[in-house]
Amino acid sequence: AGYEAVLSCPNISRVSLLLVTWKRNCSSCCLLSYRSDQNETRKLNCSERITWKYSPVSDPALRIYPVDLGDEGNYTCETVNSEGNFHFFSSLTVIVPPTVTLTYDESRVAVCQASAGKPAADISWIPASNHSSEEEFHHPNGTVTRVSYFGWADSSFPSVTCLVTHPATSQTLLM
């Protein structure tokens, strides 16, 4: 989320392109097309974030910037030339890095929270402990908050480290 996604549409034929169309596989989603004989580009239900990456004549790649969770889904590129119609399928999965915090309460329980990530982040502790527990909260937008509690009250360790791993980021917080 927040970055650029480029979906390619290979022109596998050396024959001139007549028409190229990008569409998302849902009823009211964006449709972007280019017709070469009239040098005409059309956009239907597309936000300003969805455009051609380059020129549809030279490279009909689709650019989405910035990507958000609502862009996730399956996309189809159809090219037409004198040899026929060609379909290329792309699946866009949007990942969202979590916001990570490490705090503690008055009973010396360390709380490591990875908020609103997609997919859910993994949380581990250094030193490893069997005195930790975890909760998970699923949000309507598809993100997940994971909270891990580390029982530090009876520990002789001067510090604890929370290690958060996620496909978009890895963070280490020390307390």
From TrEMBL:
In the record, biological process GO terms are: regulation of neuroinflammatory response
Give the signal sequence positions. Answer: none
Q: Does the keyword Disulfide bond apply?
A: yes
Tell me what topology the record assigns in the membrane.
Single-pass membrane protein
Gene Ontology MF: a single term = signaling receptor activity
Gene Ontology cellular component annotations, sorted alphabetically: external side of plasma membrane
Enumerate the UniProt keywords alphabetically.
Answer: Disulfide bond, Glycoprotein, Membrane, Transmembrane, Transmembrane helix
Q: What is its main location?
A: membrane
Q: Where in the cell is it found?
A: Membrane
Q: What residues does the Ig-like domain cover?
A: 1-93
InterPro entries documented for this protein:
CD200R, Ig-like_dom, Ig-like_dom_sf, Ig-like_fold, Ig_V-set
The protein's matches in Pfam families, at most eight in alphabetical order, are given as:
V-set
> Per the similarity annotation, which family is this?
Belongs to the CD200R family.
UniProt-recorded name of the protein: MOR1B protein
Q: Could you tell me which species this protein originates from?
A: Mystacornis crossleyi
